[in-house]
């Protein structure tokens, strides 16, 4: 069994010491988000996730969800339903939602550590409440008044959950191909018909109603992505007065058998003349959906981080307990039959890689959440715009990198266990299987890379990149005389400068051949992730040195930063080399020659 | 469902065009191994694995093996037993075994493509016959005459299977800690008592007897790895005359629940006063076991290759069929609703990475198998010694790299499927789970790295490295005027030269601090793998150009080599950088500070 202990000390360090979130919240007018309240959220969140959710993780994996084909009802794994009731009762559901609809109105960044804890404790369970936030956002920003009045309160207090119904069997990334139809009725509602797949929490036994946000085509819709509208389709019909009525024409047709996240219900949803209501403008559904997707993408990035951390914690414990071989430089524990494997440099290489990626990612991910708050709530329009640009730039980086690193860290953690890592009872193989979904859903890594390079950099003239480069230069200037930071400043500056050069070079090439974007995108994204993490590592060391933490804490931050700069950041060499090689090595071979 | 088609054309290319295996077999005196016979083995092997084994792969994953706790009997998945009977009937079992014990006496390299096909078609099934080879080797080289007479024929003709019983709950890598006891009896046999874990094919329903090769301690054994002896312990007792008697005191106590290879029986084996016979000298069991392990390590490397290839084949088909988005450089199939995803550069990046790693690995792996034959059968003692040194050097490289690339290629293949890759019915997620064992068993990647750098390079003065460097320089000289090869020669020479420098530098540092070996080992191993693969890619292009293959074949080899040199070989930059950073960034942080 793998265990989980919320890393509260490092969470506080990231939020308060590095990001100064408590001071920012005050400036942004979140008067409720005092340090006391934030600490209480962290401590109670740790208690809930460690004692309620974490013990259900292996059970969810083993038992999964089950579908009653006769009724279309889905039963969640033992304990999931009760844990959800505790979640609602504890008021976790509306933590960062608007008070006018029953939420607690805390800033987004105040909920981000809780999100990480939930993901680490029980990713599959976390997917049930997760999508409610997307549905809430869509209705909040695009719904009519009556829709907000009727749907938001129960979504925010957790009585109901939400879904995002995008994918169809023949279209995932390419939503322009979707076929689900919406026929207008006489009462202003629409009749929705079609099949949606990969619907997370599409059906379950935790709440009395489920609110589906569904993309579909109106009869007069133009072809392609400009003919897609958004509808709200409740499982149980809801009147304009909020009264619930009969069962709607939507039903779970089957559950997918997946590599992991067995406890999460991944549903095929059949809409058969289901009553739905248009949300926002006709044919503008994709734009509304994208509003939801940005938050969802950050949320999936956090999933990668949470899994990495849980895997690391367990691998670390195992590496301290497992006695095997002597250190090559002489026995370190001569009184034991062998040394614990953490004495071996290669085990340390794997553990330190995890530690450096995790702690750096935590600051990166939490910072992105803070940008959401700044972009929404800053009184300064210029600051709002800058935060928005940086957030748009960082979202694909955080989503893709934190999930790719989630795959990598769970790989290293499993490897530390040797053959035992492959055995279910140790629990680390579940984390590796669960992590594997995160680079796929809410847009694969390749899609994030195109979003970053094609849209955020090339189409938007690199607004976010400029902000990030400015932050890097500011840090390098400010910290030039800080002995703990200064040794790494030349390398960070060099990488930042190469980042600009690579961006310009891709732009030049792309003017002649648009495939240069696609050919560079993945490596550009990873390059960006590593440079950004280098920035956050130096910010972390600077914050640690300036803090009241003890020496052991400061040494650990310094040594992990050193490892990052000497052993991880050089990965940029390969990504830069790949970008420089251009599109030709990828595009020359004919598609029918790949099996020659 | 994933499908499998044996890549016969590329297998033939590797064996005959690049390695000239048919001519080498003739020189080595394998008169039976004519091109006709070798072609028949390939074609019949393809038929057997494609039609018999491949369709059972998903069934094995779904149903797994089951244990009857009352009797200790293990039932294999539906169809496995019948497939094994066909395997025996087809004469596959003894393909490369000595004729004096009923084998067909073909060279080791003549069976290597069959090995790849079996692994690709059904890795879990392949683990049942696999370990018979190790047991055969151990008895052949270390057994007494009566042991060879009694055990070898049924192991070679497949009537019985074998196992290797090394690991115990508290010791895997560190066999010096093992506790299983062997008490001498009056009849010259020994009574074996202890618990072994992770015993592949330890119990099953395919054969009437199972021959366990077991490491245990004699009563007078010195502590540590110099007090371990090897015993042969049949499931059903066997007399010195070959007669089988009653059930021996060995029994499967439980089956492990694993991340993958569900169809493979991974057993806890309880030896409770089981009758066994000493194989070889007392206290010299570890050396005898290592004989078996080298072949087993190459075999596991081939597993990585087989899984990579199957995953690639399926991802390639999916990427040609799945229509999603338009090419950024303009619609490539305007008559279809969208372009197949293989038009997208990032999908091509993933596919070409697989193709370059797979085809290069095939030559590397087959060459190692050929070295086994040369080391055993060359009439020239100098050539035998050289082949042996190169084989010892290449074994950890091939084992670790082909399995790490197996994890990587199954990752890329799954990623090509997007969210569908995560769903069991497509079959690619099984390949990813199955691949995950290969970097663990028969020695983790970290252990291979220590074997390479610590033993093969540092202790043995780099004998094998010198041979490999000689081959590289010879190729570069010979191909200097070959237009298809020449552009890559400077890069290969530069990497080979850096390889030598890095080796010297590590040696210099290790003289002062033995942890420098462990700190460099993983990156040294991967560096070695990429340079070696570069060599095999240039050999492949040279062989292709000189062959009678059609232009499409030659273009594909040239383009894949180009991709390898421009997009994969630069990974050496990171590994070199890591080696140069030395041990300090790994070793400074105290073990108790990893969770600070």
From TrEMBL, chains A, B:
Transmembrane domains' residue ranges: none
SUPFAM superfamilies membership: Acyl-CoA dehydrogenase C-terminal domain-like, Acyl-CoA dehydrogenase NM domain-like
Named cofactor requirement(s): FAD
Acyl-CoA oxidase/dehydrogenase middle domain location: 164-272
Keywords per UniProt: FAD, Flavoprotein, Oxidoreductase
Residue ranges of domain Acyl-CoA dehydrogenase/oxidase C-terminal in the record: 284-451
Domain Acyl-CoA dehydrogenase/oxidase N-terminal per the UniProt entry, residue ranges: 81-158
Residue intervals of the Acetyl-CoA dehydrogenase-like C-terminal domain: 471-589
Family label: Belongs to the acyl-CoA dehydrogenase family.
Protein name (record): Acyl-CoA dehydrogenase C-terminal domain-containing protein
Originating organism: Lysobacter korlensis
